[in-house]
Design brief:
about 110 residues, mainly alpha
């Protein structure tokens, strides 16, 4: 997503980058701010807990769908598939920072012949 800022800079310099940044993230940020403010006002509302509990599985499903879409594009063969499974198993078994696993996977990926 941040690639659009560099495209805006390429097309219009620093002002182009700022314009793209505001146009891309501004509406979402304003909407999130307004909804969060309204949600705080409804703290004592009896339906609030039910709505939150109902939206939890929806958000988890959307997150998994996004992960699946990214994985379909990233896993290009048996080697990368095995690496992905290994990372998944490590994440499930140990408390490891995922950023370290990404870096380690990049290093292993460099060693795998193309």
């Amino acid at each position: 997503m941040m690639m659009i800022v560099s495209i805006g800079q390429w097309a219009g310099g620093t002002l182009g980058a700022i314009a793209v940044l505001i146009a891309f993230f501004g509406p979402t940020a304003i909407l999130a701010f307004v909804v969060a403010k309204a949600w705080r006002k409804l703290e004592k509302w009896p339906w609030r807990t039910s709505i939150q509990q109902g939206l939890a599985p929806v958000s988890i499903g959307l997150l998994l769908a996004g992960c699946f879409s990214l994985a379909r594009g990233a896993i290009a063969g048996v080697e990368t598939g095995g690496l992905a499974v290994a990372v998944l198993l490590i994440l499930l078994q140990y408390k490891v920072n995922p950023a370290l696993l990404v870096l380690a996977s990049a290093g292993v990926g460099l060693l795998i012949p193309a």
